[in-house]
Amino acid sequence: MFEALIAAAGLEDIHKKVEAGERLSADDGRRLYRNGNLPAIGYLANLVRERMHGDRVYFVRNQHLNYTNICNKSCLFCSFYALPKDPEGYVLSPDDIRARMETYADIPISEIHMVGGVNPKLPYAYYMDIVRAIKEVRPGVSLKAYTMIELEQIRRIGKKSMAETLLDLKEAGVDALPGGGAEVFSERVHEELFQAKSDSDKWLETARVAHEVGLPSNATMLYGHVEQTEEKVYHLMKLRELQDETNGLLAFIPLSWHPERTAIEHLPGPTGQMDLREIAVARLMLDNVPHIKSFWIMNTPAVTQVSLWYGADDMDGSVLEYEITRNPVTDRIQALTHTQMLDMISESGRQPVERDALYHIVDQPETIRPAYMETSAGATTANGTKAAGARTDAVAAGATTAATPSQE
Ligand code: SF4
Prior knowledge:
Elements: H1 2-9, H2 12-20, H3 26-34, H4 38-53, E1 56-60, E2 62-66, H5 94-102, E3 111-115, H6 124-137, E4 142-145, H7 148-158, H8 162-172, H9 187-193, H10 200-212, E5 217-223, H11 229-246, E6 249-256, H12 272-285, E7 291-292, H13 296-307, E8 314-317, E9 319-321, E10 333-335, H14 338-347, E11 351-355, E12 361-363, H15 393-396
Parallel strand pairs: 1-8, 1-11, 2-3, 3-4, 5-6, 6-7
Antiparallel strand pairs: 9-10, 11-12
Bound molecules: iron/sulfur cluster.
């Protein structure tokens, strides 16, 4: 049956390469982007995904923090930033950060994800102070902080080299970098949408230095705006080259662009089909990157569930608060509870594995299939025992915002 699917898609040669574990070429990448048979591409990506991770799906109990929304870069695709004199601009002090963290003191969080705008007023010491504040509240947490673009600003304000800056941050408590700010590695898109911030060469150089000083990172790609297939293939090829050199990338995260409240909101934005294709093509092209993440906040929980069969092995986590693509006043609380994450993964027929930012395993919870999958013998867990629970309403409805974070 799958042979017929692959034959119908005209992808037999790529199938052979995938089965042989052979690296795909840039031309293969272009064909995967342009081929109309998405299920065939998903099938191929799933072969790689299962070879690398079996049934496992990684998730994390994490909290996202955005320490400032003030930014002087004015990227046209961004809805998050406030210009330096904008009354809606904010900066969280170390005490504010502590307070935000203490809000969720009863949740066993293992990862903090912290990014912000490029705020020209913040001194070098501030970036270390908020890192220390996080580690004071939760000494055992793994901290993923600062995009390559913020790091460039921190380095500049501190008048230090990038290696010195990264070592200072590491000493303060940063464990890994989230990898944002890459957008799409294209000079054309850079000029059109984000010319005030540094380009792909600078992003790659910063990542290279980070990996060299012992700070692993993720890498992202923002798609669904004005980018072209050729540019996305180039982006993936450059990341693959970097990974061959440093082996410092933990995960690749295709980011589904949200047009709302941006300067280019007249553009239609990505569809679910595009989201699944980005996941699948990334899994097939990035043979040396361990994890492909489907970030449910951007992709929705519903698409994320399907993506677990299209190449994704990670779905991020609880998040708790998110302001980057959401209205920070009306829509800041964005959370999935632990139970909801387990249900999402189990309902997809996969095995949940709780991790921290560095993919250390925190827990491997029992899988409980939802009640509606009940057989005549009764609902069963993946290992054959009787199921106790049903899936959550949020997942059932494919909701993008789930219950309150306290409902662990
Ligand atoms: S994407 Fe980042 S750098 Fe660009 S405007 Fe938004 S916050 Fe600033």
